[in-house]
Design a protein that fits this description.
Low-confidence stretches of chain A: none
Order of helices and strands of chain A: EEEEEEEEEEE
Number of helices of chain B: 0
Shape of chain B: globular
Order of helices and strands of chain B: EEEEEEEEEEEE
Number of strands of chain A: 11
Distance between the termini of chain B: 41 Å
Largest sheet of chain B: 6 strands, mixed
Oligomer: heterodimer
Distance between the termini of chain A: 37 Å
Helix content of chain B: under 10%
Strand content of chain A: over 45%
Low-confidence stretches of chain B: none
Largest interface: A-B, 27 and 24 residues
Structural class of chain A: mainly beta
Largest sheet of chain A: 7 strands, mixed
Chain lengths: 115, 112
């Protein structure tokens, strides 16, 4: 079946602009996660959804970052007033439930470049 | 807080060599431990996992044993192949937590 998909694959924007990154999880997966991977680093947790609600947003770096999952499937990560430091690969993952032992399946990522 | 430390790369080996990538962790609870792999141009994939002390995870010839006494989860393979060239991430998920905490990754180059 289809895996996790993310669009766009690449996004180039100018400092101060607004961007939206989209994630389509695996069908039937109730848990959805966003991570950010900077160059040469491992992925860092941003936010996690169980169904429609954000169960843990402790990883969001500041209030410029926001994510939604209105129907419990597709999620959008929104970044306002982008800064050069926001440049990274944004990864989305989904799992069947949030149970600790459930495997998280990762999408290919969106590479965001802020000029 | 919880964290993962893994050996820095890049690691360069010849084909059929023995591989060890060291990983140690700090956790307040009872974590599950993982190795993820990122092949060139591909997304992160789970390579293997272990959910409790002394468990051994294995897949594709790779093995790692959950050592609670040394808080380690070292990745090993007896004979590497060129196709094993990738970036390897050690990671943990603590009991009652939902997120995965990753190490910085180790880039592995296998020479033919």
């Amino acid at each position: 079946g289809a895996g996790v998909s993310q669009t766009p694959s690449n996004k180039v924007t100018e400092k101060g602009k607004y961007v939206e990154l989209r994630c389509d999880p695996i069908s039937g997966h109730t848990a959805l996660y966003w991570y950010r991977q900077s160059l040469g680093q491992g992925p860092e947790f941003l936010i996690y959804f169980q169904g429609t609600g954000a169960a843990d947003d402790s990883g969001l770096p500041n209030d410029r970052f926001f994510a939604v999952r209105p129907e419990g499937s597709v999620s959008t990560l929104k970044i306002q007033r982008t800064e050069r430091g926001d440049s990274a690969v944004y990864l989305c993952a989904s799992s069947l439930t949030s149970y600790q032992y459930n495997e998280q399946f990762f999408g290919p990522g969106t590479r965001l470049t802020v000029l | 807080g919880n964290s993962v430390t893994q050996m820095e790369g890049p690691v360069t080996l010849s084909e059929e060599a023995f591989l060890t990538i060291n990983c140690t962790y700090t956790a307040t609870g009872y974590p599950s431990l993982f190795w993820y792999v990122q092949y060139p141009g591909e997304g992160l994939q789970l390579l293997l996992k272990a959910t409790k002390a002394d468990d051994k995870g294995s897949n594709k010839g790779f093995e790692a044993t959950y050592r609670k006494e040394t808080t380690s989860f070292h990745l090993e393979k007896g004979s590497v192949q060129v196709s094993d060239s990738a970036v390897y991430f050690c990671a943990l998920s603590d009991l009652g937590d939902d997120k995965i905490i990753f190490g910085k990754g180790t880039r592995l180059h296998i020479l033919p």
